[in-house]
């Protein structure tokens, strides 16, 4: 049975804490005059691609983006993507583990999740240059490694992420309280880990010491969806990933997603997408 390939971050230079990993490269040096071609895979780290000049295409969780100048892509761990980046593209590629950035800082965790809620940013020339300058400074700090360089990198990451959040549409910036946002983020983290073995709202409510009613208030306030809808969307997205990124049979994918009855999974998938799993694979691959 195939699994979606997972790429892991590795440090180019030895870090004091190997669980807190970070890398950044200038793209012209990384490409070295050749195209970057990456087949469908996922990461277990955050991935930021900032392109001052670029061409090619980038598919993230089945959304197709044509690469162009002054573009930023922000990918969260677990997302599936494929990339063709043409030689001559310039900018930065930054990769980091969650542990490197927020180090148990709840406010930083919130900023990271908010900035990463959108995969594709198109700032204007002026807005892009401000963000680009932050990455240039981060690369310099990472290269020089002077005293407190990691703290300086994190401070500039703060500036970069807040800059991205300011680019989001007004209706994308929730007015929910910090507590409500924190509870939502805990839910989403739990879903990433447990959704294929536990699919009931009550399970997650218990894990968060909430009632099902309170949990639904949190998801409707922040996302405009019930908790059941959020759970189902997680399952459907992962099913799509396996259908397009592997050659597994539908009954195998059903098993991976926690369904012993493949026919039930097929009905579930068709209800939420309008396609049977096989038709989805045929139409979108």
From TrEMBL:
<dbReference type="InterPro" id="IPR009057">
    <property type="entry name" value="Homeodomain-like_sf"/>
</dbReference>
<dbReference type="InterPro" id="IPR020449">
    <property type="entry name" value="Tscrpt_reg_AraC-type_HTH"/>
</dbReference>
<keyword id="KW-0805">Transcription regulation</keyword>
<dbReference type="InterPro" id="IPR018060">
    <property type="entry name" value="HTH_AraC"/>
</dbReference>
<feature type="domain" description="HTH araC/xylS-type">
    <location>
        <begin position="185"/>
        <end position="283"/>
    </location>
</feature>
<dbReference type="Pfam" id="PF02311">
    <property type="entry name" value="AraC_binding"/>
</dbReference>
<keyword id="KW-0238">DNA-binding</keyword>
<dbReference type="GO" id="GO:0043565">
    <property type="term" value="F:sequence-specific DNA binding"/>
</dbReference>
<keyword id="KW-0804">Transcription</keyword>
<dbReference type="GO" id="GO:0003700">
    <property type="term" value="F:DNA-binding transcription factor activity"/>
</dbReference>
<dbReference type="InterPro" id="IPR003313">
    <property type="entry name" value="AraC-bd"/>
</dbReference>
<dbReference type="InterPro" id="IPR037923">
    <property type="entry name" value="HTH-like"/>
</dbReference>
<protein>
    <submittedName>
        <fullName>Helix-turn-helix domain-containing protein</fullName>
    </submittedName>
</protein>
<dbReference type="Pfam" id="PF12833">
    <property type="entry name" value="HTH_18"/>
</dbReference>
């Amino acid at each position: 049975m195939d699994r979606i390939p997972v790429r892991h971050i590795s440090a180019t230079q030895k870090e004091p804490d190997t669980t807190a990993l970070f890398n950044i490269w200038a793209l012209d040096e990384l490409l070295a005059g050749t195209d970057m071609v990456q087949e469908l895979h996922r990461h277990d780290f955050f991935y930021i691609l900032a392109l001052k000049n670029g061409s090619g295409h980038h598919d993230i969780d089945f959304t197709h983006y044509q690469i162009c100048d002054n573009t930023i892509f922000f990918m969260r761990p677990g997302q599936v993507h494929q990339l063709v980046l043409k030689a001559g593209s310039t900018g930065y590629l930054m990769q980091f583990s969650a542990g490197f950035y927020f180090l148990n800082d709840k406010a930083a965790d919130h900023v990271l999740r908010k900035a990463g809620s959108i995969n594709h940013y198109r700032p204007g020339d002026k807005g892009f240059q401000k963000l680009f300058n932050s990455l240039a400074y981060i690369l310099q700090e990472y290269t020089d490694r002077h005293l407190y360089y990691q703290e300086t990198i994190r401070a500039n990451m703060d500036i970069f992420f807040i800059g991205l959040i300011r680019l989001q549409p007004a209706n994308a910036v929730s007015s929910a309280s910090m507590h409500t946002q924190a509870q939502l983020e805990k839910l989403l983290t739990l879903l990433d880990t447990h959704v294929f073995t536990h699919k009931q709202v009550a399970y997650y409510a218990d894990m968060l010491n909430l009632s099902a009613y309170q949990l639904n208030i949190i998801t409707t306030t922040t996302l405009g969806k019930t908790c059941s809808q959020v759970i189902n969307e997680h399952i459907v997205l992962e099913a799509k990933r396996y259908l397009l990124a592997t050659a597994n049979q539908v009954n195998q994918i059903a098993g991976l997603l926690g369904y012993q009855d493949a026919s039930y999974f097929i009905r579930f998938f068709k209800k939420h997408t309008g396609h049977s799993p096989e038709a989805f694979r045929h139409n979108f691959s």
